[in-house]
């Protein structure tokens, strides 16, 4: 009967043509009736009847390496376990009579054979069912008869669970989006799949690789691994994961030493490994010892094998100390024995592996262990029959008396059984779709009256709700699927991100062979457990000790927890993976050819501090770098220098000055005792007293020079020293001038010279000294006295008076003039009569004074000596 489809005819025509093109471009689908299939044949799909059909795509078989058959060996964990996880979840939902109320979930599960092209071809089954199950009421027959369905069991696929590999999921998503079918992957982490412009109907219960790359970069940063190598496979998973890691690595200041792209071809693969080992073998103390892996599961065993061979790793070999540290993404399959069998164990030892933080589902483990040949749940999944034959090396249908193992008699032993890590994510994917269907049904089928029997839709003819029969994919995905929020089978809260990603939580593992466990068992019992959210097994529990993989930490967004005591280098220095060693204190980095992680170390100046790792800057005057060279500190608070009484430079002048004062006072006392004697009178008592008092003043100036500078001390230095000298040399000048005038006048006239009386001598001395004092007071008024910090050197702060030292020359210039005049008159009076021969001693004193002052000026102002030496010399000059 020919029928015309009145609604969306052109759309379905286009889709049908597109489907035909896809079919012709890919391998022919190999389907078979699962009920009558011979045991030796590979099963490519299974169908579980139900009112609402869920699609499933899983890598039940590996990808064939050669031959016409695209499928290789059966994959127990990643394939069969995940299929059974989906069936387990569907059973649990169907058992809840009030969940979908009147509707039973069914399944159409396909084998992707780990091959994107083959998976796409298989997935056309979903499209065929959709086109073939259009609403019959939308058709009109030419003879006006009622259209009839050709097949009752062909139903729309409401949503698809899968695929596992990102490359497979991308192909599925590109197909399913044409037919507006929602897709939920339990394992694909490709970051591109979060792009809603390209994959508007894709969601997943696992996080994006962007989070995984961020976690790996944070782990590397935590251990100071700033120079790592990157190995990735030549597929979407590897390339996008590598790009995400490089992006996160740049943020953390981590550089990529070697970047190797692993090809699928054997020759290219071996060449890549050779290049990697040649560049990475850590023979030196520095280098990229850590290798980040973003490669497909099937590449890792070969990678480990060839690495062991190229690096010549053997038991107890010295080369083992140089082995690489693998940091692997979640593609590392800890349940795959090929990873660690034989010599691979040597290369794999110490690997750090990220796994999605998945809990065990005890009820699923019990469910799977109860599967046995002959039971309904076993027989509905024909892949179990193939698994039994391969795993237990048995045959179905063998007679009891046969020597061949009978599969019917074999059960899955609980010992050594480890369910796939993604089982929980598969279950969450099914429950997410079911919760979305429940919400969709409550709105779209609010008037649905058949809810008394949960199995009614499968057992009776009445049509199901039209909205449930042909679900609007866009509305279902955006308004219901992405908004689910429920507690999963292990009690975790589950919800999708706005991009359709699952929660980002990772468990961090390290691989330790069992012989290492036995050797270090005592140490591990003392380890502090790492608190891992959602984990039922502590890192140091008996379950962990029995496993070759030790749980060492946990990562969630912005939260990294690692128990370093559980790592293989526990108790030793953390292995380094750097390009250059850190610079010592006081050295800065000079990057080599703009390499962020490679540098040479250049010494900073003693007075410079490190602004950052690459730049030195001088401290301000009076400041000095701290020991770690990160800051400058004020030396005036801790290392301020000035003349201290405890210094030998102060003690020696002070003792000499004190002795001079005592001797001068002794002479004054003698003068007083013999004040009326002719000798004292003849010497000029008045000027002699002024000379002696001036000498005491000069000695006292030594203590002023040695005192800590302040306003009073600085005022005394500027006025007192010059005034003391002026009094001394003014009195001496007046004395020698008096003698010179007396003898000069005596040769020419008997008249008494003027101003030779004691009073006039005192007045002249006072006038001459007053000139000096007046000048000093004017100077103090113009420049008030005070103290300041002086910096003779960058590492020295000296507390001194607030005028430069050479300004003292202005004050002492007048005293120098008096010294010159005294010296001139001392020369003139050198031949006076013997009773006045004191002029000879005055002359000797003046010659000595001139020599001392000249030498002091050169030493004080010309040598730049230490300030203590300068003041020591000045004190002696006084």
UniProtKB/TrEMBL annotation:
It is found in: Cell membrane. Residues 1-18 form the signal peptide. The keyword Isomerase does not apply. SUPFAM superfamilies: Periplasmic binding protein-like I. The chain crosses the membrane at residues 651-674, 686-706, 718-734, 755-782, 808-827, 839-861. Pfam families: 7tm_3 (PF00003), ANF_receptor (PF01094), NCD3G (PF07562). GO terms for cellular component: plasma membrane. It is a multi-pass membrane protein. Residues 649-878 form the G-protein coupled receptors family 3 profile domain. It comes from the Eukaryota. PROSITE patterns: G_PROTEIN_RECEP_F3_1, G_PROTEIN_RECEP_F3_2, G_PROTEIN_RECEP_F3_4. Belongs to the G-protein coupled receptor 3 family. This is G-protein coupled receptors family 3 profile domain-containing protein. It comes from Diploscapter pachys.
């Amino acid at each position: 009967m020919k029928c015309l489809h009145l609604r969306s005819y052109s759309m379905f025509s286009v889709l049908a043509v597109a489907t035909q093109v896809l079919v012709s471009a890919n391998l022919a689908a190999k389907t078979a009736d699962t009920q009558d299939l011979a045991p030796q044949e590979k099963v490519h799909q299974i169908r579980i009847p139900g009112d609402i059909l869920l699609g499933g795509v899983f890598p039940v078989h590996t990808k064939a390496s050669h031959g016409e058959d695209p499928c290789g060996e059966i994959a127990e964990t990643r394939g069969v376990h995940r299929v059974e996880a989906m069936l387990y979840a569907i059973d649990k939902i169907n058992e809840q009579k009030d969940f979908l109320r009147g509707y039973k979930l069914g399944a159409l599960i396909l084998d992707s054979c780990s091959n994107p092209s083959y998976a796409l071809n298989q997935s056309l089954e979903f499209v065929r069912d959709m086109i073939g199950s259009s609403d019959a009421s939308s058709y009109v027959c030419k003879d006006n008869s009622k259209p009839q369905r050709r097949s009752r069991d062909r139903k729309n696929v409401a949503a698809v669970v899968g695929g596992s590999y990102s490359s497979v999921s991308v192909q599925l998503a590109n197909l399913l989006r044409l037919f507006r079918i929602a897709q939920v992957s339990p394992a694909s982490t490709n970051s591109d799949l979060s792009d809603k412009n390209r994959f508007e109907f894709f969601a997943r219960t696992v996080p994006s690789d962007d989070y995984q790359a961020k976690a790996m970069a944070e782990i590397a940063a935590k251990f100071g691994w700033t120079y790592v190598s990157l190995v990735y496979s030549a597929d979407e998973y590897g390339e996008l994961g590598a790009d995400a890691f490089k992006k996160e690595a740049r943020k953390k200041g981590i550089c990529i030493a070697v970047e190797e792209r692993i090809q699928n071809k054997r020759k290219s693969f071996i060449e890549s490994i050779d290049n990697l080992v040649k560049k990475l073998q850590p023979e030196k103390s520095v280098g990229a010892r850590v290798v980040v892996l973003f490669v497909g599961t099937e590449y890792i065993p070969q990678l480990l094998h060839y690495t062991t061979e190229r690096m010549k790793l053997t038991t107890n070999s010295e080369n083992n100390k140089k082995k690489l540290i693998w940091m692997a993404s979640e593609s590392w399959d800890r349940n795959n024995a090929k990873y660690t069998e034989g010599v691979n164990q040597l290369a794999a030892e110490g690997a750090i592996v990220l796994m999605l933080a998945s809990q065990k589902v005890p009820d699923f483990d019990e469910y799977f262990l109860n599967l046995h040949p002959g039971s309904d749940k076993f027989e509905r999944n024909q892949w179990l029959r193939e698994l039994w034959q391969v795993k237990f090396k048995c045959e179905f249908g063998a007679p009891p008396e046969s020597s061949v193992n009978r599969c019917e008699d074999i059960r899955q032993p609980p010992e050594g059984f480890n369910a796939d890590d993604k089982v929980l994510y598969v279950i969450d994917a099914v429950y997410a779709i079911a919760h979305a269907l429940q919400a969709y049904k409550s709105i779209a089928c609010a008037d649905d009256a058949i809810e008394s029997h949960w199995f009614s839709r499968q057992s009776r003819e009445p049509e199901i709700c039209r909205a449930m029969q042909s679900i609007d994919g866009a509305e279902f995905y955006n308004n219901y699927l992405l908004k689910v929020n429920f507690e999963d089978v292990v009690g975790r809260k589950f919800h999708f991100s706005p991009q359709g990603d699952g929660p980002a939580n990772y468990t961090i593992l390290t691989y330790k062979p069992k012989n290492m466990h036995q050797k270090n068992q005592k140490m591990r019992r003392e380890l502090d457990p790492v608190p891992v959210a959602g984990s039922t097994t502590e890192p140091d529990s008996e379950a962990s000790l029995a496993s070759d993989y030790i749980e060492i930490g946990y990562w969630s967004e912005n939260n990294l927890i690692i128990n370093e005591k559980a790592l293989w280098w526990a108790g030793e220095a953390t292995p380094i993976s750097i390009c250059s060693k850190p610079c010592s204190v006081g050295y800065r980095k000079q990057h080599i050819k703009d390499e962020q992680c490679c540098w040479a170390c250049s010494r900073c100046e003693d007075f410079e501090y490190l602004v950052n790792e690459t730049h030195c800057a001088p401290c301000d005057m009076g400041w000095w770098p701290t020991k770690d060279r990160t800051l400058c500190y004020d030396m005036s608070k801790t290392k301020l220098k000035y003349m201290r009484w405890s210094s030998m430079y102060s003690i020696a002048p002070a003792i000499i000055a004190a002795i001079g004062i005592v001797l001068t006072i002794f002479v004054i006392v003698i003068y007083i005792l013999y004040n009326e004697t002719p000798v004292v009178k003849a010497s000029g008592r008045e000027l002699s007293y002024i000379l002696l008092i001036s000498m005491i003043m000069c000695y006292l100036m030594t203590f002023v020079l040695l005192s800590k500078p302040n306003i009073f001390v600085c005022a005394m230095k500027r006025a007192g020293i010059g005034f003391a000298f002026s009094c001394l040399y003014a009195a001496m000048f007046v004395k020698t001038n008096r003698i010179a005038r007396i003898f000069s006048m005596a040769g020419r006239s008997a008249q008494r010279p003027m101003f030779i009386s004691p009073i006039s001598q005192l007045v002249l001395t006072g006038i001459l000294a007053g000139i000096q004092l007046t000048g000093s007071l004017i100077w103090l008024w113009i420049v008030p006295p005070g103290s300041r910090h002086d910096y003779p050197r960058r590492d020295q702060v000296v507390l001194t008076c607030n005028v430069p030292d050479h300004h003292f020359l202005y004050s002492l210039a007048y005293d120098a003039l008096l010294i010159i005049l005294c010296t001139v008159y001392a020369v003139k009076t050198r031949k006076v009569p013997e009773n006045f021969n004191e002029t000879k001693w005055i002359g000797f004193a003046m010659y000595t004074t001139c020599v001392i002052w000249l030498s002091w000026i050169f030493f004080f102002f010309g040598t730049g000596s230490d300030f203590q030496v300068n003041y020591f010399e000045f004190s002696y000059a006084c």
